[in-house]
Amino acid sequence: MTQDEWRDFVSQGTRTGKLSTVRADGSPHVAPMWFVLDGDDVVFNTGENTVKGRNLARDPRASICVDDERSPYAFVIIQGSAELSSDLAEMRPWATRIAARYMGEEAADQYGARNAVPGELLVRVRVEKVVALSGIAD
Q1: Given the DSSP bridges, would you call strands 36-38 and 41-47 parallel, antiparallel or unpaired?
Q2: Is the preceding omega at residue 32 within 30 degrees of 0, hence cis?
Q3: Are 125 and 81 in contact (CB under 8 A)?
Q4: Are 11 and 68 in contact (CB under 8 A)?
Q5: How many domains does the chain have?
Q6: Phi/psi class of residue 135: alpha, beta or left (left: φ > 0; alpha: ψ in -120 to 50)?
Q7: CA dist list (Å): 67 to 3, 4, 13, 135
């Protein structure tokens, strides 16, 4: 896929990302997450006391997989480094935008308010490397 193609692919509909982080013992941890793109960043929220939140605070390396499980199959893998923020004023608009993508505009404000509270983090993964393939079964 070209850059425009993979960006369109990961932004289509309500595809979730599968976030891989590194545990303290070096083993991988994978968890689904809601996200949006912002320029060269993948933006999402997580709790600071979740496994992924603790992992990213300790080691910012992250990999995100977004796929289409229907034939002819496609996937995008994004690798990068995470930056964390607990600034609620910064977090609220992003939490609302993410909620609009996954829950619809009518519920966006409600979910944005729920997800931009103390104890939550705004995460930005700077895109450093992308592997993107489509039409795998063609």
Answers
A1: antiparallel
A2: no
A3: yes
A4: no
A5: 1
A6: left
A7: 16, 16, 12, 12
CB 92 within 8 A of CB 112: yes
Strand ranges (E), the chain: 17-22, 28-33, 36-38, 41-47, 61-68, 74-85, 120-134
What CATH number does residue 126 fall under? 2.30.110.10
Residue 67: domain span: 3-134
pLDDT tens digits in sequence order for the chain, 138 residues long: 999 999 999 999 999 999 999 999 999 999 999 999 999 999 999 999 999 999 999 999 999 999 999 999 999 999 999 999 999 999 999 999 999 999 999 999 999 999 999 999 999 999 999 999 999 998
Beta bridge partner(s), residue 31 = 19
Distance CA 38, CA 125 (A): 10
- Using the structure block, give the residue that is written with the tokens 């308010």: 113
